[in-house]
């Protein structure tokens, strides 16, 4: 086989060929892995909803994307409304994202029909290594800054800001970001209207708490 001459044209042809083949391989790999990744993400979210709602005997009745303005910024939320096996409204799990110390902090918060926090989990954290994991435990029922059973009708805040929530040790910024995400999730949930939710809607929560 005759060796290609080392000319500019031949070098360009080789480089273009390599680029085309590489692009094709990457596209094929992406196509093969896209569906499994999507299914894995859906399973993780489904399990997360059961975790924050405190039961696996539920049905997600709707997944509503909501855009709401906070501090002059348009933020996106997803409200996963749930019902028990008899169809009674249980509450909702809300995906909420805010800016933490190192980047986005995304949480999934479960609220009951009265607006009390049932549970939460951290979906994404760009905090200093270890802080994201710590936040995932600190505010749980057995944590020092537990928010379980509380309502954010009056925004939840850390002690330093006049609230009653203990901040993560040496990480007030992350604690504030977390509570902000929870407060915003509650505001979105309380603003929902679901006439098919057995009388227990976000709108009814808001009305009851304004008395």
Which properties best describe this structure?
211 residues; single chain; alpha+beta
What does this structure look like?
This protein has helices at residues 8-53, 131-138, 172-190, 202-209, and strands at residues 59-70, 73-83, 89-99, 104-112, 117-125. The chain contains four helices and five strands, in the order αβββββααα. The model is unreliable at 194-211 (pLDDT under 50). It has a five-stranded antiparallel sheet with strand order 1-2-3-4-5, sandwiched between helices. β4 (104-112) and β5 (117-125) form a beta hairpin. It is an alpha+beta fold and 211 residues long. The longest helix has 46 residues, at 8-53.
Question: How far is it from the N-terminal to the C-terminal residue, by CA?
Answer: 89 Å
Number of helices: 4
SSE succession: HEEEEEHHH
| Strand composition percent | 15-25%
Kindly state the percentage of residues in helix.
25-40%
Q: Helix/strand/pairing class, anyone?
A: alpha+beta
Main β-sheet description:
5 strands, antiparallel
How many DSSP-defined strands? 5
Shape: extended
Taking all Cα atoms into account, the compactness measure Rg is: 23 Å
Which segments are poorly predicted (pLDDT under 50) over 5 or more consecutive residues?
Answer: 194-211
Numbering strands along the chain, what is their spatial order in the largest sheet?
Answer: 1-2-3-4-5
Determine the mean pLDDT.
82
């Amino acid at each position: 086989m005759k060796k290609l001459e080392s000319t500019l044209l031949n070098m360009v042809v080789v480089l273009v060929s390599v680029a085309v083949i590489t692009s094709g391989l990457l596209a094929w790999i992406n196509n093969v892995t896209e569906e499994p990744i999507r299914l894995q993400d859906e399973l993780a979210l489904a399990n997360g909803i059961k975790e924050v709602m405190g039961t696996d005997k539920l049905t997600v009745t709707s997944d509503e994307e909501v855009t709401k303005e906070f501090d002059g910024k348009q933020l996106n939320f997803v409200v996963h409304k749930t019902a028990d096996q008899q169809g009674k409204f249980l509450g909702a799990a809300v995906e909420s994202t805010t800016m933490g110390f190192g980047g986005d902090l995304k949480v999934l918060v479960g609220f009951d029909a009265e607006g009390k926090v049932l549970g939460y989990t951290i979906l994404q954290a760009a905090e200093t290594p270890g802080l994201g994991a710590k936040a995932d435990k600190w505010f749980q029922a057995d944590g020092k800054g537990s928010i379980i059973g509380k309502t954010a009708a009056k925004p939840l805040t850390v002690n330093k800001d006049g609230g009653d929530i203990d901040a993560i040790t040496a990480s007030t910024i992350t604690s504030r970001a977390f509570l902000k995400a929870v407060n915003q999730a509650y505001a979105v949930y309380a603003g929902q209207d679901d006439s098919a939710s057995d009388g227990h809607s976000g709108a009814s929560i808001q009305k009851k708490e304004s008395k």
